[in-house]
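QA checklist item 7 of 12: single-chain prediction sanity check.
[x] sequence parsed
[x] length recorded as 302
[x] structure emitted
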Amino acid sequence: MDLNGILAFVNVVKAGSFTAASRVLGVPVSTVSDRVASLERALGVTLLTRTTRAIKLTEVGAEFFARSNAAVQQLLEAGSDASRTQSTPTGTLRLTSPVDFGSAEIAEAIAEYRSLFPGVRVEAHVSNRLVDLVAEGFDIAIRGGLLRDSSLLARRIGTGRLILVASQRYLSRAPVLTHPRDLARHTCIGFMSDEKEKEEASWHLRSTGGASVRLKPSLAASSTSFPVLIDLARAGTGVLLLPRYMVRGPIERRELIQVLPMWSTADMPMHLVYPAHRFASLKVKAMLPLLEQRLRAILAAG
């Protein structure tokens, strides 16, 4: 049995619904439902009957709740007691973040954290690889896009969208660009993830009027480094699709120009994620607001 499943089940019963339990646990409703279903499969019984309006305990479910609720409360009390014995974070805090995302802000957060808690050693790993936090022993990750691992807790820090930019040097000699479909006649450059070096990702663009276009440009150049891509665009290599906050400076300095300004990608959520069993850790709790404050600022500005 997965203890997360038991915790989800107990909270569903006490809160009266999967939606209310998701608010208590701070995870999506689908995650709560999946965990309860997984628990039922592990036990080989049905604990809850679900209708469109209510949930109801089965006979075996009522018996299991009576015993598991008491056990869950004892575990939570034990965790609280253990946390209270530690007034200052200690040990090693390991965090991972994407390449070139908020490096200065992350460094500022680490510096402040270390000034407050000099007894903690901080390891900051930078990679575009999807790190397995539990298996690899990480405490916090900064991730963009939809979250795929329902076992992780998440704190949303903002959203970002990708826009199209190019240099005046490139645009002065390139074909007219009035619609995303025109990109087929243009030289394009773009990001290449560590995990998909052989694949060229699709560009899914949406207009302010609600139109949508998905295209797969033939990239003349690509890189796993955002600064390299920006330098390529500055040098007149082609049209680049990149997060708005990363090219704000070059646009303000007129090194790059936003093209097709009515078109961009949909908002991409950014999160701080951490394993559920790390949530009670004082060293994790102390770092989260420091990262959140700084990273929210750059996303909001972008």
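[x] summary fact logged: The chain has three domains: 3-84, 91-158+268-301, 162-264.
[ ] second reviewer sign-off
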